[in-house]
Design goal:
The chain has 284 residues and is of the alpha/beta class. It is built from 8 helices and 16 strands. The strands form 4 sheets. Strands 1, 4, 7, 8, 10, 11, 12, 13, 14 and 15 form a 10-stranded mixed beta sheet that branches. Strand 2 and strand 3 form a beta hairpin.
């Protein structure tokens, strides 16, 4: 199983803090947002590689971060290198975008991981061919995660759930607020946690099961993923693909065993520093 980390966003809501620096590598105590997530995922035996998809602007920063020895300062001391910190190899993929206005979107970034994007791809406006030269990894199951969350559970629980069900899976959590449900994906489940339906930002939610940006796509379903955008799947948010997949294959949803902390603004970033900057308060 490959761990695919979607990190090509520009985090415009964090202003100057992320104008020239990627949000996943912002410090939280003696680590980073992404580092804390990888500390957990790297321990999962099923994971064989971490693939980080970023944009052209931030790719050099990720590459320096990944190749600098763990504990050594890089980028003027703004963060610490991590080479050797984790057992599984790290691959950085540059999606070629340079601004928030020409970003490819999370779904197209995932397609870049699967294979070289062909000429005429709707992910590239149908006009050009990707310069990415990477072997197709379609022979592996994929754990797909957004890179800007602190988690209070281990992804191993999610991986084990997917293995037990034998299907591609999403996560879900109970969300009592109707207002918040109206701003996210919402699923209906049966008694076995099979997904019966999914809606994006419903005005009248059919359940209280909200969907966070964490997914497992089994290799048997990756052909559906490859052709999702050309068949009408939205490109921007990873939830667009989950919605598409629910309509085309059987999926189950794992109810999160604990919470998460979504870092989406300056306020939530500084709150995370205050709460989790002390290593003893690490979520995992």
């Amino acid at each position: 199983m490959k761990n695919i980390i979607l990190a090509a966003g520009y985090a415009t809501r964090l202003g100057e803090l992320t104008k020239n620096f990627p949000k996943p590598l912002l410090k939280i105590g003696n680590s980073t947002i992404l580092g804390r997530m990888l500390d957990d995922i790297d321990k999962i035996n099923d994971i064989t590689e971490h693939v980080i998809v970023t944009n052209h602007k931030f790719a050099p920063i990720f590459e320096q971060w990944a190749k600098t020895p763990s504990g050594s300062p890089c980028l003027g001391g703004r963060l610490q290198g991590v080479a050797g910190r984790w057992k599984k190899p790290i691959t950085i993929i540059d999606d070629g975008s340079t601004t928030n206005d020409n970003r490819l979107g999370a779904v197209c970034d995932l397609l870049l991981v699967l294979k070289k994007t062909p000429s005429g791809s709707p992910c590239l406006g149908g006009e050009k061919e990707s310069s990415l030269n990477r072997e197709d990894i379609g022979g592996s199951d994929l754990l797909v995660v957004a890179a800007d969350n602190l988690l209070f559970f281990s992804f191993k629980e999610f991986v084990d759930f997917a293995k037990a069900k034998g299907t591609s899976c999403i996560m879900c959590h109970e969300q009592p607020s109707i207002e918040k449900l109206q701003r996210t994906g919402v699923v209906e489940l049966d008694a076995d946690n099979r997904v019966l339906g999914m809606e994006e930002k419903p005005q009248v939610p059919k359940s209280h099961w909200a969907v966070p940006p964490f997914y497992i796509y089994l290799k048997k379903d990756l052909d559906l993923v490859r052709h999702s955008v050309e068949n009408g799947c939205g490109k921007d948010a990873p939830g667009n693909l989950a919605h598409y997949m629910v309509e085309h294959t059987m999926m189950h949803a794992w109810p999160m065993s604990a919470g998460r902390f979504d870092i989406g603004s300056l306020d939530t970033y500084y709150e995370a520093i205050e709460k989790y900057g002390d290593p003893s308060n690490s979520p995992v």
